[in-house]
Amino acid sequence: MSHSSTSGLDGTVSSISNVETTSDTAQLINTEDASTSNYTQLNKSVNFEDSDDEEFHGSHGVRRRQAQQKIEPGSMNVLSAKYESLDYDTCENHLLLDEERKRGYPFVVWKDIARWFIILLIGIATALIAFTIDICIEEFSKIKYRELKKSVDKYVVQDRLYIPYLLWVLSNICIVFIGSMLVAYVEPVAAGSGIPQVKCYLNGLKVPRVVRFKTLVVKTVGVITAVVGGLAGGKEGPMIHSGAVVAAGISQGKSTTFNKDFKVFQYFREDHEKRDFVSAGAAAGVSAAFGAPIGGVLFSLEEGTSFWNQALTWRTFFGTVVSTFTLNCALSAYHGRPGELSYPGLLNLGKMEPFPFQFYELPVFMFFGAVGGLLGALWNHINYRLTVFRIKYIGSPWLRVVEACLVAAASATCGFLMMFLLNDCRPLGEDPTKVPLQLFCADGEYNALAAIWFQTPEASVRSFLHDPIGSYKPWSLLAFVISYFLLSSWTFGLSVSSGLFIPNLLTGAAWGRLLAIMIQYMLPSNTINPAKYALVGAAAQLGGVVRMTISLTVIIIETTGQISNALPIIITLVVAKWVGDFFNEGIYDIHIQLAAVPLLPWEPPPLAHNIYASEVMSHPVFTLRTVENVGHIVELLKLVSYNGFPVVDPPLADDVEVTTYKRLRGLILRSQLIVLIQNKIYNENANTTWSNFNVDMNMFRKEYPRFPSIDELNLADWEKTCTIDLRPFMNPSPYTLPHRASLPRMFRLFRALGLRHLPIVNDVNEVVGMVTRKDIARYRVWRHRGHMGMEELILSSEI
Amino acid sequence: MDINSYHVFFFLFLHSLTILKADTSIREPINLELLLARTGEGYLTSFPEECSTILNRFADASSNFTKCSILHARPIRICSRCIEQYMQFKTIYDELLTTIVNGTSCKSIFISHDRLDAVLEYHDNILSIWDKGHCNTCFNWSDKVPVLSNETKLFNEKFNETMACIMKYIDPSTNDTQPVCENCMQSYIQLDNYYKTLSDDAIGVDSICMDVVDSMNATRSIWSKTLNCCKIRRTPEIIFLCCTGIISALPIFYYLVLRYFSPMRDLPNVLKQSRFKQTILRSLGRTN
User: Which band of pLDDT confidence, cut at 50, 70 and 90, is reported for residue B234?
Assistant: First the structure.
């Protein structure tokens, strides 16, 4: 067999197009073994004849997928090949060493100070965005509901109630239409709460456009329209996303959207630094949303950030405190009480009295937790089915906009029908009501359901938590719980930006209050505190849906200002999480899995020590030689979509026939290669073109984070024959593992260090394979209904 | 460190001790003085005469107000009927605070000495009743003597008019309330509208004097519950129900149409992964 991969240092283009090889180093053009690469460009003519029979019965108790060729949409057992990892690993090349030599300790100190300053800015900016959102929602809602009330008051005596009703429907549709158009056409990644996206980003995945300025604008406008438009959504989730975008924007000192570089903070322009700021920004967002600084830090730790350290905790906490404080100042000033600082967050559940509880009540809280877990699992399942339906049938943006408008209309219908049918009247003045709507009640009374529907959901949560026990009739509560449960599950996942915290808190508070009333009926001699059960119910419902424990507990403690409620809440939340996990995943994980994102969980799959690197790795590796031909590089970059290439020693000339693997020298990234070619750093013109050109790290930082694609580079023919010495630019000591390393070992290395590429070497340090995130993430553990197992996911590049 | 600094520390230590002591030693002389100043019932000498008199009058004023407020609790007329008692009570209390006899103020004798603090407690209770009812807003405070404000007067006028009308047309022998509703509608609506203009808050709990609020509540209750004059509000609303029916059916239609008529997109293909095992299998197959 002729051999090709070892065509010597001069490596001409023709030499790589040879066919028929025994080499285990991948060839660029491979006519026969079409399936040697992950990429569709390469295997258009895949033949499935050698469908690996062995893969059906798992050799290690691993449930393998059938080698089906098509994927059912909405499948959770797929990974998308489109997602790229972020580069967290520092590339210790010569340029970095040069830079370190020049700088020294004053620079380290300066960088630290800059970090704190950026965190301060992040806190302030996030709080100001939260302030804007809050004020807009409050003012617009006030206008909307005041006008609607006038209209109802006018037409109710004329038997023409359909006029205010249609007015409500129309206003909802119009407002939601604006937000939905923005989300569907301008920036689809701004849909939903944004927490899954931020979670993926912090896990080390490049989610396209997730931290751009445009996303922030769409998100802000979107959340205002969604809440003012009367959808069953909250503004808390989007705040977290907004905080993340703010952090990513400020820390980079430049904006690609505006094409403006402020020439500051260049040293933070790398994925590693940006990730730390984004996790602090997400925490600042939580803290602005809930007025919960510690809850924000814990949220970032529990739900978001995959990489954490002590210094970051401290900085993050500083950011969250600044954020709460700024929002507090701004809101107090706005409400005419500057300096009073009584508005710490967007969601303020109001001060709760410490509720005393007895030992015998703990089982009651557990029962509430179980109910919350069941309802949460049901909520997630409904939302899952809806999302699958949306993936399958609602593809085009305008269909999504229509859907959002229909949901807005249905929300108004639901509210109006409930007010109309359930005549739950309350005397005026006993409870604080902003828009008391009389409807069919007697004079001096108002409709209790209208009071709930004619205000923002946050205010409704407050009413449920604080109103006295007789404020709502059980039947109205039941109707409200059912309708709001379904509405909120229907709303989440629409093409609008709104979160699920508030709707679930509201549903939970309503059924908690309902159960409290039932307990009161059963035990008429005891006085039941409805606030206690409403709060526990709210926590249980939310915990059943999102499956968070500690951060949610702390958030609720901080929003209610009562530390003594911690025990009931944590018991409830833990039970809710366990019960919910028995049936399905948390809502964020469901959405992440539906998006086929290769997210790495906290722990490696258990009982997987018998899976070795040689099975996990992608086998034929595309390598580059230490001194490589430009034409070859360009060819390779155009052909494959890999991002990291092991740099290997050129083989010795005399063992052309036998060589299979080559010795590892380093690792170079696609982005680095592109920058090198773009700047024409060739050996041949070393003395002419870039002799007085400063080759340093800034050359790479300038393009970050959006490097041009290889197709955008124009290359003259003469350049293709040039060569590049990759040694000064590559990472000379990439993390590697021997081919006998086990899956948990690889997983931990990958996860803890945030790696992107892990070359697998044999006993003599020759590259035999490459492990990337998708190779590891395809081993996924599931545990439901008392069973547990591991399955190997399939990949697709078309999701 | 030299001797001096130790001195300083020592001094500071002693000084703080004396400060700590001072807390108790300030109290002692007063207690002692009081004890010396009282006679009978465990005290050595009696109070200054003036203070005792004021206390006496204060007790009378408080009980007068309490009596009045309890008597006028239902229907609430506390503000308008008890204003004299309230003014009296307030003046005497001010007197109690300001009177000083031989350098000892009456306040220091009666107020803030013990856990019970009965005088202050009763005073605060009475004040809280008054403030809870926003009674001050009933009156015009520009003169020395408070008089009913114009708003309150006007409201009372309209209220009396309406009640008179209802009393006039009501016929207890029959259950038919139709004549009352028809004849008094005009004055009732006037009253209702006037009441709504009194506060800018939607429910009027913020600032309106409790007498007015209660009168209005009572009237509204009589009007809409006893007399049942609000039947007009309950109407069939057929068109409304049709609209809701249509709009709630829309999403279902939408989903059904999408389900059965939307073009099925191409299913995504599975990517063939490149693994070590396949290469071995393939090369084995080739060599065979």
Answer: low
